Amino acid sequence: MAAIPRLPEGFVWGTATSAFQIEGAVDEDGRGPSVWDAFTATPGKVRDGHTAATACDHYHRYEEDVALLRRLGADAYRFSVAWPRVQPDGTGPVNEPGLAFYDRLVDALLDAGVTPMPTLFHWDLPQALEDRGGWLDRDTAHRFAAYAAAVADRLGDRVRHWITLNEPFEHMALGYALGQHAPGHTYLLDALPAAHHQLLGHGLATAALRAAGAPHVMLTNSYTPAIPYSGSKADTEAARAYDTLHRRLFTDPVLLGAYPDLDGFGLAGPLPFVKDGDLDRIKAPIDGLGVNYYNPTRVTAPEPGTTPLPFELAEFEHVNTTDFGWPVIPSGLTQTLLELTADYGPALPPLWVTENGCSYDTAPDADGRIRDQARIDYLEAHVKAVAAAVEQGADVRGYLVWSLLDNFEWAEGYHQRFGLVHVDFATLERTPKDSFDRYAALIAEQRR
């Protein structure tokens, strides 16, 4: 085993999942349809036509999965609440059987000594709200706050750690700008209102959670260092533009109360969808900032006339990649945590690595053992990257592996396996991988 530097006393270790990717039971307990139900039902949208109708069947097997968390020795479990299960149409009274599922899950986690960390929105918008405009409609932000209040009213006596949104950049970019994820729109820069309305929803939900007595509220963004393809001025400016769109657009308003300059995107002056008072609501104090990190992004200046954006993405050369084709560059996580620390200074709350993981489709051996050494190497290197950032001054409070289980990986269906636990999607049998045992040993080592 590689030696892992000791993280500070009280550092939190755990795993993460999301509702649509693991729960299944899409037609049970009064749950309404989500944008992802509609997207997966559209031919050609998801690889091989896979759906999440059953997924990992976590809805029925949650006790088995909580037992895995106990066996792992996890301090915390980040899961998401399915908005359509709680409010089938995204508004109005709660669906009692749906909310009762999360009651049972939270109680099971607490009984197992695992801290529940629910995320209120992980991309599964109720389809009824999408039919009214989705996140392009300002009213969705207010509906989200009402939903947050309803969940907090039910679970707030036992849940202390809340996350409002997961990766609003990806949801805007892939769901509203490029059409690769639900709801499947291709609006390009006209998708920007979906960015603002998600952030407004975060601010309004934060206020609702505070009113319910929530002591710890976070927002989770994806972060990726923008690496210029070369040292040229054009590539450097392209990388800066990408960083503005991916990082600063979703972080500056929350921590600084202002949007970054978007002149390079042809958006000079005030953004028309930002109303008086919005930025004050978005800047409501938070207790932590979630960092989802997978890899850096290499950026180059575009050829004239090839794209309406001031950048293009380029491949890294001579680096290992995961089965997803993502480059494995652990130093990018150290860079991410230190850049956030340097750039936001005293405005930055404590950082949490709320997702970090890799896709490797390592099959069981003849003896049933899953020897996923590549995942072990990945996780060890990235935990060391967190430790390096802490040593250099970053205030990082926890590390959550994506993911506890192999699951439904959005547009890739069941073709990408991120789990510490192998799931046979025919039988739903769970088999902890070697990486599960290594992570359990790491957690135990850190506690000695």
Describe this structure in words.
Pfam families: Glyco_hydro_1 (PF00232). Keywords: Carbohydrate metabolism, Cellulose degradation, Glycosidase, Hydrolase, Polysaccharide degradation. GO terms for molecular function: beta-glucosidase activity. By secondary structure, this protein is α/β, with parallel strands linked by helices. The protein has a single domain (12-447), classed as TIM Barrel (Alpha-Beta Barrel). It has 14 helices and 13 strands. The protein has helices at residues 19-22, 35-40, 58-72, 83-86, 96-111, 127-130, 139-155, 168-177, 192-211, 233-256, 278-282, 331-344, 373-391, 434-447; strands at 12-16, 76-80, 115-121, 161-166, 216-222, 226-228, 288-292, 297-300, 312-314, 351-355, 396-402, 421-423, 430-432. It has an eight-stranded parallel beta barrel with strand order 1-2-3-4-5-7-10-11, surrounded by five helices. It is globular, with a radius of gyration of 21 Å. The protein starts with 11 loop residues before the first strand and ends with a helix. The model has no long low-confidence stretch (mean pLDDT 97).
